[in-house]
Structures are given as C-alpha cells and as structure tokens.
Design brief:
The chain has a domain of 102 residues: Cation efflux protein, cytoplasmic domain (Alpha-Beta Plaits), CATH 3.30.70.1350. It is built from five helices and four strands; from the N terminus they run ααβαββαβα. Strands 1, 2, 3 and 4 form a four-stranded mixed sheet that branches. α4 links the parallel β3 and β4. The protein starts with a helix and ends in an 11-residue tail after the last helix.
C-alpha cells in the first residue's frame, strides 16, 4: 500500500503522535483517549497537599450512583493538536491557603500531563467546588478523646 493510500485511509490525524516526528521509522500512530489524560490529571491533583477530593458534576455523580467508578472524575480535557486544555474541579481542605493550593495544583497537573503524555497542557483551569475539614485518623481521634482503661486505647 503506497504512502498516499495510507493517508487516504487515515484522514488528518494532527492530534496523534507519530514517531516520524522524531526522525524515527514510522510504524503507525499513537493515540491517547481524552480519559487517559484526565486520569493522569486527576491522580496528579490528588497528590497536592490541601486537595481533599475531586468534585463531581451531575453527570459524573449519576455515573457513580449507577455503579460506574471513574478515576478521571473531576477533570475535563479538550485536545487540540498536540496541546490540551484541562479543567480540574476540586474540594480543598479547610484552613489552607486556597490561591497557593490552586497554583500548586496547576503546576503539578501541567507537569504530569506534559511528562507522561507528551501532550502540552496549555491551560490548567482550577475550579474550587467546596471546602471541607479533613477527616481525622484513628490516631488523632484517640489523642483527642482518650478513654482510659478501654481495649485498644494507648492510655
């Protein structure tokens, strides 16, 4: 099959990676689903101190209700060529500096998307959907309300 015949069967795929771009022999194209980029962004966002959870919109909340769990919840991605725009919806911890958390979140998500997918995250829009108190661990609870003489108590 001639090269121009191949181009006819695969219309303009400007949003895919081709090894020929790096001077390597072309074996085919590599295409990432939008959801893959969204999962990378979601996992990176959850690593930022001060982020408690990813927020879900109505559609994602309905999917969760129906039993479909998604690692990409709280993230929307729009791909154009080799760049993308990422919108991240999060709930942050009460007491944190929200602008500082948002800037760290932008940097972490951009870095993760750029390094792991070879797409360029042109914009990372952060939407703070809520503020919550972080849930206390069992150890914190035991220090705050020690019940002497009870099994499992450290006192």
């Amino acid at each position: 099959m001639a090269d121009k015949d191949l181009k006819k069967s695969y219309p303009d795929r400007s949003d895919t990676y081709s090894p020929a771009d790096d001077g390597e022999e072309e074996l085919g194209y590599i295409e990432l689903a939008d959801e893959v980029i969204a999962i990378v962004a979601s996992l990176a966002a959850l690593d930022v101190p001060g982020v408690i959870s990813m927020s879900t919109g109505f559609r994602e909340g309905l999917s969760n209700f129906l039993g479909k769990k998604s690692l990409a919840k709280g993230v929307r991605v729009k791909i154009t060529g080799h760049s993308c725009r990422v919108a991240v919806y999060v709930t942050v911890e009460y007491g944190c500096n929200i602008p500082e958390v948002a800037m760290k979140l932008q940097k972490r998500v951009k870095s993760a998307v750029d390094e792991m997918t070879e797409y360029t995250a042109e914009f990372v829009d952060v939407h703070i959907e809520g503020v919550k108190r972080r849930e206390k661990s069992e150890l914190e609870i035991s220090f705050n309300s020690p019940e002497e003489g009870k099994a499992g108590s450290i006192f």
